[in-house]
C-alpha cells in the first residue's frame, strides 16, 4: 500500500526529487557566504544544488527544529526525539508521536547527519535531509508529528507568527519569503547539516596531534578496535565510524546494511515481524535483519543501542559481539542470533580478556564530544513561554519506561516512500535521456561535420 499523503503528487515529487542529489557526489555548491565551523582536516558535508547554505536559512531551520507547532497538537518538535542534551538522541527504546502513537525503532542521533548519504535505519534510497523531513511531518505509520491531511493548517500556523515572517523573508528572499513545503524542508535540512561533532579526545589525538589526548587504556583499545581480532573497523570506519558516509569531496557515496545476529526467530534469518530491516523495502529475503551501521560517536548519550533499543548499555553491546549474536531463550522472539544464516560473516564472536574489554570501552569513550552537546549554536532559541515551546514535550518528559511497553504494531507503509523517491529519480533520468536524444536528432549532418 502506497504511503498516504494529502499533498498533491507533483508537489511531493518536486520536494523529493529536487534534493535527491545530496549524496556526496555532486560538484561544489556555492554557500552564499556561509562559514562552516569545521576543523581544517574535515571536508564539509555534501549540499544539494537547490539548497545552498546561508546563515539566515540555518537560523530559520533552528527555530523550526525546536518548534512544537510543527506537530498537529503542538506537543512534538523535532527536538522531542532529537534532544541536544543527549547529542540529538532520544534516550528511550522507542519514541512517542502525537496522541501517544508508539514507534518501533530507536530514534537515531543527528551528530554528523549531513555526512550520511542514506537516512533512517533501513532505507537504501532515502538520500537527502530535505526528503527525509516528510516522514516525521506527514508519516502515518507510525504517526510522529501527525500532519497528514493538515498540511495547510501547518503552514498557516507558521505564517501567523510575525517572527517567522521575518525569518522566511531573510532565508528565502528569492522566493518572496514564502512559507511552503519547499522552504520548510530546506531550512530544516540546512540547520541539521551544521550539527557537526568533531572535537572528541580521539579527534584531538588523531587529527590534532595531541599525543596526550588519549589515555594508555584508550590507545590500547584503539589498537584492538582496528585489529583483525575485534574486526570492528570493517563496518565502523572513517571519520564518522560508519561505512555509510560521504563528504562534499567524495567520488561516490558509501552505504551498507548489515545483519548482526540480534535475532533468528525462525531459524532462517528472520527478525521480529514488526521490523525486518532492509527487507521491508527490498522484499529480498537475503535482506532480512539488515540495518544501516550507526556511528560510534557520542555513545555516552546514545543509549539504548541497536535499531530497537534492545541493549541498555555498552556492556550489553559488547556481550552481543563477544557471543557472535544474541541468544533469546523464550518469548515470541526466541532464537539463537549467533546461528542466523544471514548474519554478517565478520560477526564471529570474540574472546575478550577483562583488560581488553576495559580498553575497548575507554577507546569508545574517547569518541564522545562534550563540546557538541554544550554548543549554544545548537540550542533551543525559543523563550519557554512562547507557543513554540509552551506545550512541547522533551525526550524524557512524562514518558513511561518504554522498555516494558510493546511498540505499536501497524503496517509499515512508510517503507514505500523510498520507492516513490527512486521512481522520481528514474523519471528524471529518463527525461534527461530523451532530451539529449532530441537534441542530437535536431543537429543536421552538415552541422556535425
Description of the structure:
32% of the residues lie in helices and 2% in strands. It is built from 16 helices and 4 strands. By secondary structure, the protein is mainly α. The longest helix is centred in the last third of the chain and has 25 residues. It has 2 domains: 245 residues, Cytochrome c-like domain (Cytochrome Bc1 Complex, Chain D, domain 2, Orthogonal Bundle), CATH 1.10.760.10; 165 residues, Orthogonal Bundle (Cytochrome Bc1 Complex, Chain D, domain 2), CATH 1.10.760. It is globular, with a radius of gyration of 23 Å. It has a two-stranded antiparallel sheet. A two-stranded antiparallel ribbon has the order 3-4.
SSE layout and pairing:
Layout: H1 9-18, H2 55-65, H3 78-81, H4 129-132, H5 134-138, H6 151-159, H7 162-171, H8 181-193, H9 201-206, H10 216-225, E1 257-258, H11 279-282, E2 291-292, H12 314-323, E3 327-328, E4 335-336, H13 354-365, H14 370-374, H15 417-441, H16 445-448
Antiparallel strand pairs: 1-2, 3-4
Helix pairs in contact: 2-7, 2-8, 10-13
Short description:
With 449 residues, the protein is mostly helical. It is 32% helix and 2% strand.
Amino acid at each position: 500500500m502506497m504511503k498516504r499523503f494529502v499533498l498533491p503528487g507533483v508537489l511531493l515529487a518536486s520536494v523529493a526529487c529536487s534534493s535527491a542529489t545530496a549524496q556526496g557526489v555532486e560538484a561544489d555548491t556555492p554557500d552564499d557566504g556561509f562559514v562552516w565551523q569545521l576543523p581544517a582536516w574535515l571536508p564539509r558535508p555534501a549540499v544539494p544544488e537547490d539548497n545552498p547554505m546561508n546563515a539566515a536559512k540555518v537560523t530559520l531551520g533552528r527555530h523550526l527544529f525546536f518548534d512544537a507547532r510543527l506537530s498537529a497538537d503542538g506537543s512534538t518538535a523535532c527536538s522531542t526525539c532529537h534532544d541536544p542534551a543527549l547529542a540529538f538522541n532520544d534516550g528511550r527504546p522507542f519514541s512517542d508521536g502525537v496522541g501517544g502513537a508508539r514507534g518501533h525503532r530507536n530514534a537515531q542521533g543527528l551528530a554528523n547527519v549531513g555526512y550520511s548519504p542514506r537516512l533512517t535505519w533501513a532505507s537504501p534510497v532515502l538520500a537527502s535531509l530535505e526528503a527525509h523531513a516528510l516522514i516525521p511531518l506527514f508519516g502515518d505509520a507510525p504517526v510522529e508529528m501527525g500532519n497528514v491531511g493538515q498540511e495547510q493548517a501547518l503552514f498557516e500556523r507558521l505564517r501567523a507568527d510575525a517572527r517567522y515572517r521575518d525569518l522566511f523573508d531573510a532565508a528565502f528572499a528569492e522566493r518572496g519569503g514564502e512559507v511552503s513545503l519547499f522552504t520548510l524542508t530546506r531550512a530544516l535540512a540546512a540547520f541539521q547539516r551544521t550539527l557537526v561533532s568533531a572535537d572528541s579526545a580521539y579527534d584531538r589525538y588523531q587529527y590534532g596531534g595531541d599525543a596526550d589526548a588519549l589515555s594508555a587504556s584508550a590507545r590500547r583499545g584503539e589498537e584492538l578496535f582496528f585489529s583483525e581480532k575485534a574486526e570492528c573497523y570493517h563496518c565502523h570506519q572513517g571519520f564518522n565510524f560508519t561505512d555509510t558516509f560521504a563528504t562534499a569531496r567524495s567520488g561516490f557515496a558509501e552505504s551498507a546494511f548489515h545483519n548482526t545476529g540480534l535475532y533468528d526467530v525462525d531459524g532462517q534469518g528472520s527478525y521480529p515481524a514488526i521490523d525486518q530491516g532492509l527487507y521491508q523495502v527490498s522484499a529480498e529475503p537475503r535482506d532480512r535483519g539488515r540495518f544501516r551501521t550507526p556511528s560510534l560517536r557520542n555513545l555516552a548519550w546514545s543509549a539504548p543501542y541497536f535499531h530497537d533499543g534492545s541493549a541498555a548499555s555498552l556492556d550489553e553491546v559488547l556481550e552481543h559481539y563477544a557471543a557472535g549474536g544474541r541468544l533469546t531463550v523464550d518469548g515470541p522472539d526466541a532464537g539463537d542470533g549467533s546461528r542466523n544464516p544471514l548474519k554478517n560473516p565478520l560477526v564471529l564472536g570474540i574472546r575478550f580478556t577483562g583488560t581488553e574489554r576495559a580498553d575497548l570501552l575507554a577507546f569508545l569513550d574517547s569518541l564522545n564530544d562534550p563540546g557538541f552537546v554544550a554548543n549554544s549554536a545548537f540550542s533551543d532559541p525559543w523563550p519557554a513561554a512562547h507557543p513554540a515551546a509552551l506545550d512541547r514535550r522533551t525526550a524524557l518528559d512524562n514518558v513511561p519506561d518504554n522498555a516494558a511497553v510493546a511498540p505499536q504494531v501497524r503496517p509499515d507503509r512508510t517503507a514505500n516512500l523510498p520507492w516513490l523517491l527512486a521512481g522520481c529519480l528514474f523519471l528524471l533520468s529518463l527525461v534527461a535521456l530523451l532530451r539529449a536524444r532530441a537534441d542530437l536528432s535536431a543537429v543536421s549532418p552538415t552541422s556535425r561535420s
